[in-house]
Amino acid sequence: MRVIGLTGNIGSGKSTVSRRLKKLGAAALDTDRIARDVVAPGTPGLDLIVKTFGNHVLTPEGELDRAKMGDMVFKDPGARAKLEAIVHPLIFREVVKKIDEYKSGHNTAPAMVVEVPLLIESGMHRLMDEIWLVAVNPEIQLNRIMSRDKLSPEQAFQRMNSQMPQEKKIEFATKIIENNGTPEETEARVDELWQEIARDHAK
């Protein structure tokens, strides 16, 4: 089974592409779930976050306050680096485990898709057979983020600028999915790439 790392910056449309791939028959690894599990209450991950940043990053229920943590790390590159140093190794370990389970199991899907926003930054791209990048024009990206997350232009720019530039990610990409047009146009590109995977799998 081929393992495809699906990535792209905030507002690029990764989830749209991921949903289409699942519909076409791809196996999917939910890294959002993994990211939540490794910092759940009672885990070493959350304990280390609290030790590093203090109890104020917790909700009254003792869970990680993601909104507060997110606001902090988007404003402070140093805080973001500290958080990533804690969570990336934990997520990496779980992703390796899940990929091994998929490959050793009896899976009929031609490929497994692993959607990771920080695929390249975290080093997880080294685990993938291919890297598919969802690319978007900055103007469209900005409008999507503002509309989806109810942010001001300044807040949206802050989140965009906190990530590796798209141009750098293109250097790592095996395939590029432009997501500037209609959903139908994006789906057509995804379908085209998936057909290549399916043909190779059938050989």
UniProtKB/TrEMBL annotation:
EC number(s) on file: 2.7.1.24
Pathway per the UniProt entry: Cofactor biosynthesis; coenzyme A biosynthesis; CoA from (R)-pantothenate: step 5/5
Spans traversing the lipid bilayer: none
Catalytic reaction list: 3'-dephospho-CoA + ATP = ADP + CoA + H(+)
UniProt-annotated location(s): Cytoplasm
Keywords (A to Z) from UniProt: ATP-binding, Coenzyme A biosynthesis, Cytoplasm, Kinase, Nucleotide-binding, Transferase
One cellular component term from this protein's GO annotations in UniProt: cytoplasm
Lineage top rank: taxon: Bacteria
Alphabetized GO MF terms: ATP binding; dephospho-CoA kinase activity
Broad class of where this protein is predominantly found: cytoplasm
Binding-site list for ATP: G11, S12, G13, K14, S15, T16
CDD domains per the UniProt record, alphabetical: DPCK
UniProt-listed GO biological process terms: coenzyme A biosynthetic process
Family: Belongs to the CoaE family.
Physiological role: Catalyzes the phosphorylation of the 3'-hydroxyl group of dephosphocoenzyme A to form coenzyme A.
Stated name of the protein: Dephospho-CoA kinase
Species the sequence originates in: Desulfocucumis palustris
Taxon lineage: Bacteria, Bacillati, Bacillota, Clostridia, Eubacteriales
